[in-house]
Amino acid sequence: MDCYLGIDFGTSGARAIVIDDEACILLEVRYPWETPVVPDLATTWQTALLTLIAYIPGELRQEIKAIAINGTSSTVLLVDGAGQPVATPLLYNDGRGVFVLEQLRNIAPANHTVLSATSSLAKLLWMSQLPTFSQAKYFLHQADWLAFLLHGHLGISDYHNALKLGYDVEQLTYPEWLLGLQIPIQLPKVLSPGTPIAELRPEIAAEFGFPNDCVVCAGTTDSIAAFLASGAKLPGRAVTSLGSTLVVKLLSHTRVEDSRYGIYSHRLGNLWLTGGASNTGGAVLRKFFSDAELESLSREIDTSQASPLDYYPLLQPGDRFPVNDPNLPPRLTPRPDHPVEFLHGLLEGIARIEAQGYLLLQQLGTDRLTHVYTAGGGATNKAWTAIRRRHLKVPVKASMNTEAAYGTALLAMRGMK
Question: CA-CA distances (angstroms) from residue 366 to 158, 257, 333, 408?
């Protein structure tokens, strides 16, 4: 029996799913992040990766033919020639790139995807000012580095992760304006997601009992992996990932890019996956409520009635989409005494942001929204689903599979076909 392993490095933890040739799930294992996250991010990621692999029973590891990994978009790090990090990685929502935006605006085309404080390229330019930059040889995304730990080849990425670095996913090349920056570091070689890169390092294969010909494939981002898992395949169909953050993706014939609103398009075959990511989402809910409280209080909400509270739920100032403003203040007041009313206001606020995002995509030229599939932890909240359906005015249902690790396993399987 041939099996395929997908590994998801998301905002709340890491997961691994093994599927068979019929795309049926054989095993799922999880590695939640500690709270607060350990400062040594790279070591935490490496530990999570190897722990997840060790959780897979030996007899199943012997059947795995291909592995793919997804990571959070624009989570990046600098490494030396041996692949060792030379500075602390910057996470997807790190906005220190705001200090180089003016420099970027003088170089990149107007409204380009990289013109965001959280883009990979903005982070690279900011990191180029670090004292340790001279030790760096490669700039990698989270998924790139984790895959390197398995296959041993540095400087390889995929065009989903490389989009916010400035890679031209239409022409499949780095644009001249980016190469003209002459950054003294190796930009990744970019492959199509799912492309086989190399067999596992012999020592990894031996330690964990993988077949010698087990291949590591080019990866993707967590939100695209969630889209792949959803079963959405037609233009007009969309996936909202309701995890720690809110990510929307709408499948369209038309490519839309506009950094003014944090909008970008990923290539998906002959179509375009257009969307954006907001810093609102489940992390805000978990600041105020436990999972048990979210479940019990949600049942008391009258979802047919809109909350009068006008919230823009954020943990800290700054959002990326549909309002791209690194200084946007959270709006969480007034706070009612009753927790049900407060939760209702939060859910309503996140739903408004989601609806505003999809409306903006359509105003800029995408196909009309017809269905929304939901992935992530929020997919199971019936009250939230009802509120979102009222705002979106289209059918809203849970994805066929809500785990990004499943979509990544599919990517590994398709890469070997």
Answer: 24, 11, 34, 26
d(C-alpha 143, C-alpha 164), whole Å: 14
Closest-CA residue to 45 (of 20, 11, 74): 11
Burial 23-32 (b: 16+ CB within 10 A, else e): eeebebbbbe
Residues 6+ apart with CB under 8 A from 187: 139, 155, 165, 174
Q: Which residues pair with 157 in a beta bridge?
A: 190
Structure confidence by residue, pLDDT tens digits, 57-78: 999 999 999 999 999 999 999 9
Q: For residues 21 and 19, give the distance between their C-alpha atoms in angstroms, rounded to a whole number.
A: 7
Please, are residues 229 and 399 in contact by the beta-carbon 8 Å criterion?
A: yes
Partners of 6 in beta bridges: 17, 68
Rounded to an integer, what distance in angstroms lies between the CA atom of residue 26 and that of residue 49?
Answer: 19
Cut 0.85: pTM above it: no
What's the rounded Cα separation, in Å, for the pair 311 and 67? 42
Q: Residue 320 is which amino acid?
A: R
Q: Is the Cα dihedral 157, 220, 222, 410 positive or negative? A: negative
Residue 241, CB-side half-sphere exposure with 13 Å CA sphere: 32
For the segment 15-71, what is each residue's pLDDT rounded down to a tens digit? 999 999 999 999 999 999 887 666 789 999 999 999 999 999 999 999 999 999 999
Question: Which string of b and e fits 104-113 if b means at least 16 CB within 10 Å?
Answer: beebbeeebb
Contact 415, 66 (CB under 8 A): yes
- Nearest-CA neighbor of 25 among 377, 399, 374, 401? 401
Residue that is written with structure tokens 């093994």 in the block: 18
Cα separation of 406 and 4, whole Å?
10
- Per the CB < 8 A criterion, the answer to whether 348 and 386 are in contact is no
- By 3-state DSSP, what share of the chain in percent is helix, strand and coil, each rounded to 5? 35, 25, 40
Each residue of 135-147: pLDDT tens digit? 999 999 999 999 9
State the angle between helix axes of 382-392 and 339-363 in degrees (0 to 180), rounded to the nearest 10: 40
DSSP label at residue 328: P
**Helix axis angle, 222-230 to 404-415, nearest 10°:** 80
